């Protein structure tokens, strides 16, 4: 079975994902820049940011350098989309996007974490070897096929998100009480047309159970030809409903794009042919590209079954040493992503309450917490204690997240201690009064 990872498959799926990845990266970075930076001012170096442990040294840039940085990051996304200077562009995107991700822990989103991993993996994938500016400038780079492991890595990352997302939903709140989904869709009861549906209690239970089953089983259904279209229907329904109900950015479209990689790798060529027959401009682009790289007009379409069962299948002509390196790297990737989500079981107490092991574990949309409170500061120099509201130093989102995350409460307490000690107070004690 491992041998099949080196089977030659059409590069079309990888090229399709490169283009989609670049477009979604542009959209997400634009949102981070315009909303969180320009509107909310969350990346102001003079303001407090919650840091990931071990990455406290990651600091925002002052203006105008922060905006210039975002503009360069947007340029990298455009270059990835068109496949120009691909390796340098995707490396820049990985470093830049990860830098922004590490700037503020209160902004943590699963799709942001996934995007960091995808941008890292894309550095090593030959996604610019077809339909790219790089090939247009140097046709010797063109490749019609690539080893299957390039597609498998992306399939695996999507599979991990689905499967562990499903495992996390196997809990009493989600399955027996349809919570917090029942509460969330209840907020949408006044929505035009569909509002009546969200009012029904049975709707929350149907969505809770179907969401859990879909996450757990969808990858297995995608691997079989007879169930693949059915799986795609449920995936599209699932993500479209999520988009209607919740503001979750690019995640639904990224998930759909990764899900399409489970279809035969020649499928994007079929989509392109269909579109070319409908739109003259697309037809002209298609013909120009085929002449550019001298590919035949009609390319044989293959299914996964044909690719992996044919006696005459071709394999990537790479050395045994490189094969071992590829297998070792893929094995390490699998171990990391299959063990990291399980670390929550090493911590005492329920993860939904303590938050330990929540991040990087694909525990999506599982709980909603509300909290309020303040901090009490005492010093041996003062006669009276001081009561500090987090809103004096934090944005609304930071304060909301902090009050429900013990690690962030502790981090903010350390900030207050350091602040008052720097102002001359002695023997500073900080007490968090959070409910």
Structure description:
With 435 residues, this protein is mainly alpha-helical. Helix content is 58%, strand content 5%. The protein has 19 helices and five strands. It has helices at residues 12-39, 65-82, 86-103, 110-122, 133-137, 149-168, 172-176, 181-186, 195-199, 201-222, 225-245, 251-259, 267-278, 280-293, 304-309, 320-339, 351-354, 396-403, 406-422; strands spanning 8-10, 145-147, 373-378, 386-388, 429-434. The strands form two sheets. Strands 4-3-5 form a three-stranded antiparallel β-sheet, with helices on one face. A two-stranded antiparallel sheet has the order 1-2. Helix 6 runs antiparallel to helix 10 (201-222), helix 10 runs antiparallel to helix 11 and helix 13 crosses helix 14. The longest helix is centred in the first third of the chain and has 28 residues, at 12-39. The radius of gyration is 25 Å and the shape is globular. The N and C termini lie far apart (54 Å). 30% of the residues are buried.
Provide a brief overview of the structure.
The chain is mainly alpha-helical and 435 residues long.
- SSE series: EHHHHHEHHHHHHHHHHHHEEHHE
Provide the structure class.
mainly alpha
Please summarize the sheet with the most strands: 3 strands, antiparallel
What is the typical, i.e. mean, pLDDT?
Answer: 92
Strand content: under 5%
The total strand number stands at: 5
SS summary, helix count: 19
Spatial arrangement of strands, main beta sheet: 4-3-5
Shape: globular
Rg (CA only): 25 Å
